[in-house]
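Notes to self after the Tuesday call (sharing in case useful).
The group wants a holo model before anyone commits to mutagenesis around the pocket. I volunteered. Ligand is iron/sulfur cluster. Logging inputs and output together so the record is complete.
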Amino acid sequence: MCMVTLSDVWQTHQNNGVKMTYGHTDKDQSWAAKALCATESPDALFVQGAAQRQVRSRCLACPVRLECLADALQSEANFGVWGGLTERERRAMLRYYTTVTDWREWIMDSDDPLAEELRTPKIPRVLARTRR
Ligand code: SF4
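Result:
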Protein backbone atom coordinates (compact mmCIF):
# COMPACT_ATOMS: atom_id res chain seq x y z
CA MET A 1 0.00 0.00 0.00
CA CYS A 2 1.27 3.46 -0.89
CA MET A 3 2.09 5.51 2.19
CA VAL A 4 2.05 8.82 0.35
CA THR A 5 -1.29 10.52 0.80
CA LEU A 6 -2.90 12.89 -1.63
CA SER A 7 -2.30 15.65 0.87
CA ASP A 8 1.42 14.90 0.86
CA VAL A 9 1.59 15.11 -2.89
CA TRP A 10 -0.46 18.27 -3.00
CA GLN A 11 1.71 19.89 -0.37
CA THR A 12 4.73 19.18 -2.51
CA HIS A 13 2.94 20.62 -5.50
CA GLN A 14 1.89 23.78 -3.70
CA ASN A 15 5.33 24.29 -2.23
CA ASN A 16 7.05 23.61 -5.49
CA GLY A 17 9.47 26.45 -5.22
CA VAL A 18 10.63 25.31 -1.83
CA LYS A 19 10.55 21.56 -1.82
CA MET A 20 11.27 20.50 -5.36
CA THR A 21 14.77 20.47 -6.68
CA TYR A 22 15.27 21.45 -10.26
CA GLY A 23 18.12 19.27 -11.30
CA HIS A 24 21.42 21.08 -11.11
CA THR A 25 19.93 24.46 -11.94
CA ASP A 26 18.38 27.12 -9.79
CA LYS A 27 15.22 27.98 -11.67
CA ASP A 28 12.59 30.45 -10.57
CA GLN A 29 9.63 28.46 -9.32
CA SER A 30 7.44 31.35 -8.26
CA TRP A 31 4.95 30.18 -10.88
CA ALA A 32 3.39 27.88 -8.29
CA ALA A 33 1.68 30.88 -6.69
CA LYS A 34 -0.32 31.38 -9.91
CA ALA A 35 -1.44 27.77 -10.22
CA LEU A 36 -5.07 27.49 -11.21
CA CYS A 37 -5.42 24.39 -9.09
CA ALA A 38 -4.09 26.11 -5.97
CA THR A 39 -7.64 26.94 -4.95
CA GLU A 40 -9.09 23.57 -5.84
CA SER A 41 -9.32 20.34 -3.95
CA PRO A 42 -6.12 18.33 -4.35
CA ASP A 43 -8.18 15.22 -4.83
CA ALA A 44 -9.34 16.65 -8.14
CA LEU A 45 -5.87 16.48 -9.68
CA PHE A 46 -4.32 13.48 -8.02
CA VAL A 47 -6.54 10.88 -9.56
CA GLN A 48 -5.44 7.73 -11.28
CA GLY A 49 -5.80 6.02 -14.64
CA ALA A 50 -8.31 7.25 -17.16
CA ALA A 51 -9.63 9.89 -14.76
CA GLN A 52 -6.41 11.82 -15.34
CA ARG A 53 -7.39 12.48 -18.93
CA GLN A 54 -10.60 14.07 -17.75
CA VAL A 55 -9.15 16.36 -15.10
CA ARG A 56 -6.23 17.51 -17.21
CA SER A 57 -8.47 19.50 -19.52
CA ARG A 58 -8.69 22.13 -16.77
CA CYS A 59 -4.94 22.65 -17.00
CA LEU A 60 -5.37 24.13 -20.46
CA ALA A 61 -6.74 27.29 -18.86
CA CYS A 62 -3.95 27.51 -16.29
CA PRO A 63 -1.60 30.49 -16.78
CA VAL A 64 1.41 28.49 -15.58
CA ARG A 65 0.76 25.23 -17.41
CA LEU A 66 4.11 25.10 -19.18
CA GLU A 67 6.10 25.96 -16.08
CA CYS A 68 4.20 23.29 -14.16
CA LEU A 69 4.90 20.70 -16.83
CA ALA A 70 8.58 21.64 -17.02
CA ASP A 71 9.02 21.23 -13.30
CA ALA A 72 7.19 17.92 -13.28
CA LEU A 73 9.41 16.55 -16.04
CA GLN A 74 12.56 17.95 -14.48
CA SER A 75 11.79 16.39 -11.13
CA GLU A 76 10.28 13.25 -12.68
CA ALA A 77 7.09 13.71 -10.68
CA ASN A 78 5.34 10.42 -11.15
CA PHE A 79 1.94 10.86 -9.65
CA GLY A 80 -1.10 12.82 -10.76
CA VAL A 81 -1.72 15.37 -13.47
CA TRP A 82 0.92 18.07 -13.95
CA GLY A 83 0.91 20.68 -16.67
CA GLY A 84 -2.00 18.96 -18.37
CA LEU A 85 -0.20 15.68 -18.90
CA THR A 86 -0.96 12.35 -17.33
CA GLU A 87 1.62 10.17 -15.64
CA ARG A 88 1.76 7.94 -18.68
CA GLU A 89 2.38 10.84 -21.03
CA ARG A 90 5.16 12.28 -18.89
CA ARG A 91 6.83 8.89 -18.63
CA ALA A 92 6.67 8.57 -22.41
CA MET A 93 8.34 11.96 -22.83
CA LEU A 94 11.12 11.11 -20.38
CA ARG A 95 11.79 7.84 -22.20
CA TYR A 96 11.72 9.42 -25.65
CA TYR A 97 13.66 12.63 -25.09
CA THR A 98 16.61 11.20 -23.22
CA THR A 99 18.98 14.01 -24.17
CA VAL A 100 16.89 16.86 -22.75
CA THR A 101 18.54 18.29 -19.65
CA ASP A 102 16.51 21.47 -19.23
CA TRP A 103 12.84 20.80 -19.74
CA ARG A 104 11.77 24.40 -19.29
CA GLU A 105 14.07 25.53 -22.05
CA TRP A 106 12.97 22.66 -24.29
CA ILE A 107 9.27 23.33 -23.80
CA MET A 108 9.58 27.09 -24.28
CA ASP A 109 12.08 27.19 -27.15
CA SER A 110 12.42 23.89 -28.99
CA ASP A 111 11.19 23.53 -32.56
CA ASP A 112 10.40 19.87 -31.91
CA PRO A 113 6.82 19.22 -33.10
CA LEU A 114 5.70 18.09 -29.66
CA ALA A 115 7.20 21.14 -27.95
CA GLU A 116 5.39 23.36 -30.44
CA GLU A 117 2.18 21.46 -29.79
CA LEU A 118 2.60 21.79 -26.04
CA ARG A 119 2.79 25.56 -26.39
CA THR A 120 -0.71 25.68 -27.85
CA PRO A 121 -3.75 25.46 -25.57
CA LYS A 122 -4.83 22.06 -26.88
CA ILE A 123 -4.51 18.51 -25.63
CA PRO A 124 -1.15 17.41 -27.07
CA ARG A 125 -0.69 14.08 -28.88
CA VAL A 126 2.13 13.00 -26.60
CA LEU A 127 1.80 9.23 -26.98
CA ALA A 128 1.52 9.40 -30.75
CA ARG A 129 4.56 11.67 -31.02
CA THR A 130 6.72 9.60 -28.71
CA ARG A 131 6.02 6.25 -30.33
CA ARG A 132 9.13 4.61 -31.73
S1 SF4 B 1 -1.13 23.15 -15.12
FE1 SF4 B 1 -2.71 21.99 -14.03
S2 SF4 B 1 -1.61 20.88 -12.42
FE2 SF4 B 1 -0.24 22.51 -13.14
S3 SF4 B 1 -0.55 24.25 -11.81
FE3 SF4 B 1 -1.93 24.50 -13.55
S4 SF4 B 1 -3.89 23.58 -12.98
FE4 SF4 B 1 -2.30 22.84 -11.53
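Two things stood out.
Residues 1-9, 16-26 have pLDDT under 50 and may be disordered.
Residues 44 and 131 are 29 Å apart (CA to CA).
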